[in-house]
Design brief:
Helix content is about 80%, strand content about 0%. The protein is mostly helical. α4 runs antiparallel to α5.
């Protein structure tokens, strides 16, 4: 779910970027609703990532790779918010921050997709082992007696 939220937030960010919504909002109060929707939608995205990290923290027997990916996702979230706020406060004057904001979003999405794939693989393997039917052992002494 967190990966889907980040994806949708990235699409909204692309709308903001492609329509120059920040410049238009700062210069003449046009397209401010697009910019504000991008900023407000960051709240549920952030909550979904925090919930994921909290759930990972509560499961003691979780794969260590999933723990590392959840910590990375949380770190990227914090960095993304910091860079996004900085970009807006500097009125997009530092191009590197804008590019970093987009790159961090891509890294965050990739991290969450990786988390989902590994979690699904682990769950599939656990379910497979749980429902595996053991083959009956045949005794070699009963053959050919």
């Amino acid at each position: 779910m967190a990966a889907a939220c980040v994806y949708l937030q990235s699409v909204l960010g692309a709308v903001v970027a492609s329509r120059w919504a920040v410049h238009q909002c700062l210069d003449g109060a046009r397209l401010c609703q697009v910019l504000h929707s991008h900023m407000l939608s960051a709240i549920p995205v952030s909550v979904s990532i925090v919930v994921l990290v909290f759930k990972v923290w509560r499961v003691p027997a979780l794969h260590s790779g999933l723990r590392r990916l959840s910590q990375l996702a949380f770190s990227l979230l914090l960095l993304q918010v910091l860079v996004g706020v900085s970009t807006l406060r500097l009125h997009l004057q530092v191009e590197g921050l804008t590019v970093a904001h987009q790159a961090i979003a891509a890294l965050l999405f990739g991290t969450l997709v990786s988390f989902s794939v590994i979690a699904l693989r682990d769950r599939w393997q656990a379910d497979r082992q749980l429902f595996a039917v053991p083959f009956p052992q045949s005794s070699s002494s009963s053959v050919g007696s």
